[in-house]
Every structure is written in structure tokens, then in C-alpha cells.
Amino acid sequence: MSRALVVIPTYNERENLPLIVARVRASVPEASVLVVDDASPDGTGYLADDLAANDDAVRVLHRTAKDGLGAAYLEAFEWALDRGHDPIVQMDADGSHLPEQLPSLLRALQTTDDAGRPVDVVIGSRWIEGGTIENWPRHRELLSRWGSAYARTMLRLSTRDATAGYRVFRAQALRAIHLEDVHTRGYGFQVDMLWHARQAGLVVVEVPITFVERVHGRSKMSPMIVVEAMLKVTAWGIAGLFRRSKPAGAEAVRG
């Protein structure tokens, strides 16, 4: 297997970035890290450059504007594929995704489903048995659960945590998804990627994680972002009723 790459998008994460990068490097020392900064006004990008200057396994991708989480990930995925990284990990910079749990996600990628097919995508899930959240207000939990349930219903997904952002992809899985067809740039990007994975017939599994609310900085989430995402999910679901899907991939839960 080629060297794994952990992609960490940032926007005003100066307080969180050094610790999260250090924890990733300690938890999975064989992996590289790519910080994708959207021209953070607080200087996160410059700090990322300092981290890279002191660690050959850290790279920085500077973007010129805040253009959405999806846009940052899509550019990072292309960067990773061009350089032969495999697998490729999504991880938040705010500490909500515990780097110490990354080894369990990577191990799940080395397994097969009940039909003996290799796993293509691993989801770090909050909403399966063994998954937990810490320090989230009740309304945030209910909103996340509702969003995942709605996406599952509209798009016929079996993944319990459809909006999860802690994910591992095989390089060939990202190629099969056809990233040029993924147009969502905001909160709905996670569902969009999962939907395309299903359409491509990929094997998706969930493993339980502990999700921790950020300590430093402010969440970029807002009610309007969620509403916009759910409107897109509704449109995808309605469109899917009028065309035949490709064979669905297998989606499973791993404890």
C-alpha cells in the first residue's frame, strides 16, 4: 500500500492545528498530512507552513478563498491521487475527530464484506452501536440525527451516519466516484460523496467513533447551511425516482 494521506481542511483553526497534526503524526506515524487552508485571516496557513518546514510528512495546499468544505476536499483528493497516495483520510481540524481512533478506521479498510469483497470506504460513525458524542447540545444531536435519517430515506442509503466527516477512501474508490460529478461544496458534500459511492457500487462500512465538540474556535455550521443541504438531498432523491440507478454498493456496520 502507498503512503496514507490525512487531509485536514482549515479556516481560522490556528489554535487547533498544531495539536491535531501532532496527534495524527503520533497515532499514524507512517501517514502523511495535507493541510488545506482557505486563506484563513487568522494566519492558520502561515502556521501550517511552519509545521511543514519542520516535518517532511506535512504538506500545505493554499487556496485563495473560502469556497466551501467540499471544494477544499475535492482539490485535496485530486492532489492526493496525482501523487499516488492511498488510502486518503478526511479529518476535521477542530479536534472533533480523534486521531487516536484512526488506526481502527484504517484496519477496517483491510477487511471484506460478507460477500468477500474488499471494503472501499470506511465511515467513522456516531450513530451506530458503540458510537458516542461528547459535549454536544441536544439540538445539535437531534439535527444531525435527523439529517442522516432524512438522507437515508430520500437516497435509499443504509449508512447510519450519512453526514459523518471522518472517512477513509481507497484511491480507486475516489476514482470510481468520478469526482468531477460531485458538485456540492457545502455541508451536503458528505452526503453527496456517499450517494456517489452507492451509485458506483462501492463497499461502505461504518465503525464507531467518539465525536468530541470543539474546545477552541467557532463552528462553521449554521441552520441555513443545513437547510440548503437538505434541499439538495430532496432534489437528488426526487431525481432518482425517474432514472434507473447503477447496482447499489454494500453498506455495513463494523464494531
Structure commentary:
This protein has helices at residues 17-27, 44-53, 69-82, 102-109, 138-155, 171-177, 189-199, 223-240, and strands at residues 5-10, 32-37, 58-62, 88-90, 121-125, 132-134, 167-169, 204-208, 210-212, 251-253. It is α/β, with parallel strands linked by helices. Helix 5 (138-155) runs parallel beside helix 8 (223-240). The model has no long low-confidence stretch (mean pLDDT 88).
Q: Quick recap of the structure?
A:
The chain has helices spanning 17-27, 44-53, 69-82, 102-109, 138-155, 171-177, 189-199, 223-240; strands spanning 5-10, 32-37, 58-62, 88-90, 121-125, 132-134, 167-169, 204-208, 210-212, 251-253. The chain has 255 residues and is of the alpha/beta class. It comes from Agromyces allii.
